[in-house]
């Protein structure tokens, strides 16, 4: 493309995808001379929305009262997504829980939710959310089942017999 006395060159990449990331070099030379007369590197970053790395059906945890449960989810994207855990019903996470974040690479993040000394109240569905401002975000659900012994409570004595 000629603009005044300058010539502009462009590179068109069809169906751009994450593997196209990298440094591209534009090099010019003048016909009849030897060697490169000018060169300019350009870094191409390809943004991609977060994607959970495994299916929600893989995330089912069974535990007994008093045990610890760990739920992990891994998401990929460019830039690396921010990954958070919460309850699917919007209730706050148990006070005995803690999160541990691990960045495996510049595009992958693992977030682990540790539920400590679980009780019946900890059972239910938990949501792992991944967002990196490239839409759409992604979510993964994990079900936690808590096994416990049945409890028996005394009942007030009843008087009389129903007919």
Question: Which SSEs are present, and which pair or pack?
Answer:
Elements: E1 2-3, E2 6-7, E3 22-28, E4 38-44, E5 48-52, E6 60-64, E7 69-78, E8 82-87, E9 97-103, E10 108-115, E11 124-131, E12 138-147
Parallel strand pairs: 6-12
Antiparallel strand pairs: 1-2, 3-4, 5-7, 7-10, 8-11, 9-10, 11-12
Give structural notes.
The chain is mainly beta and 163 residues long. The protein is built from no helices and 12 strands. The strands form 4 sheets. A 4-stranded antiparallel sheet has the order 5-7-10-9, with no helix packed on it. A 4-stranded mixed sheet has the order 6-12-11-8, with no helix packed on it. It has a two-stranded antiparallel sheet with strand order 1-2. The model has no long low-confidence stretch (mean pLDDT 86).
Structural class: mainly beta
Quaternary assembly: single chain
How far from one another are the termini?
99 Å
Instruction: Give the SSE string.
Output: EEEEEEEEEEEE
Mean model confidence by pLDDT: 86
Helical content, roughly? under 10%
Total beta strands? 12
Strand order of the largest sheet: 5-7-10-9
Beta-strand percent range? over 45%
Main beta-sheet strand count, sense and barrel state = 4 strands, antiparallel
